[in-house]
Design a protein that fits this description.
CATH architecture: 3-Layer(aba) Sandwich
Order of helices and strands: EEEHEEHEHHHEHEHEEH
Radius of gyration: 17 Å
Mean pLDDT: 91
Strand content: 25-35%
Helix content: 25-40%
Structural class: alpha/beta
Largest sheet: 6 strands, mixed
CATH superfamily: P-loop containing nucleotide triphosphate hydrolases
Low-confidence stretches: 215-223
Distance between the termini: 38 Å
Number of domains: 1
Shape: globular
CATH class: Alpha Beta
Length: 223
């Protein structure tokens, strides 16, 4: 069983309130799309869920493999996270970054699985290229690969198709579909293509949570 619960989450930066009283519970198989205007707190909420930021109020609890905890280190250890601000080690090659990432997180990933994901992502031919020499699109593919490698139970993607071409977006969709049966996936986006992949929606500004397709959500806003 994999469940994620947010209990009355709220956050402030100084005297500025970003959001308040976010309460929801989702389980394995959920692909949650978080929507909202720029500055509404989507990225902040994802960082809190990933254990990278302490909420001002409330608690995030992840249950996985018969264990349940709200400790940020637990959340970090069980999350695959991809977001625009993430920086990689520019002096490393793609192969070195992958090996370092898996070693740091003690991921039980076989070399065959890594090779498969390198092929799927179109990164195999760049394996010996230093990260500082990569284009922004290839760098984004690598960030996504690092989020999915090891099959984490919680996958958190902030604007995941940033800088991706059509092939990269198709690969991202494939990985999401393959991972959805064994994980909870959260995507912060306002892009209709990505939202069409989601099973649930959460509007950070309005605090609205729903199990509806995006077209129904948009139609309701205009009624």
């Amino acid at each position: 069983m994999i469940t994620l619960s947010l209990d009355r989450i709220g956050h402030r930066y100084g005297h500025t309130e970003v959001f308040r009283n976010i309460t929801l519970s989702i389980e394995r198989g959920t692909i949650l799309g978080c929507i909202g205007q720029n500055g509404s707190g989507k990225s902040t909420l994802l960082r809190i869920i990933a254990g990278l930021l302490f909420p001002t109020f409330g608690r995030v609890t992840l249950t996985y493999d018969k264990q349940s905890s709200s400790n940020p280190s637990w959340l970090r250890s069980k999350s695959g996270y991809c977001a625009p601000p993430i920086t990689l080690y520019e002096e490393l090659t793609i192969a070195e970054q992958l090996a370092f990432h898996c070693a740091c997180r003690s991921l039980p990933v076989t070399s065959d699985r890594i090779e498969t994901m390198l092929d799927e992502s179109g990164l195999a031919r760049y394996r010996k290229t230093r990260i500082g020499e990569l284009s922004s699109g290839i760098g984004q593919r690598l960030k996504l690969l690092l989020a999915f490698v090891g099959n984490p139970p919680l996958i958190i993607l902030d604007e995941p198709s940033t800088n991706l071409d059509t092939a990269g977006i198709e690969t991202l969709h494939t990985w999401i579909v393959h991972s959805a049966s064994s994980a909870i996936i959260i995507i912060a986006t306002n892009i209709s293509t990505e939202l069409a992949w989601c099973t649930h929606m959460f509007d950070v500004e309005r605090g609205r949570f729903s199990h509806v397709v995006m077209s129904d959500w948009a139609r309701a806003d205009h009624e």
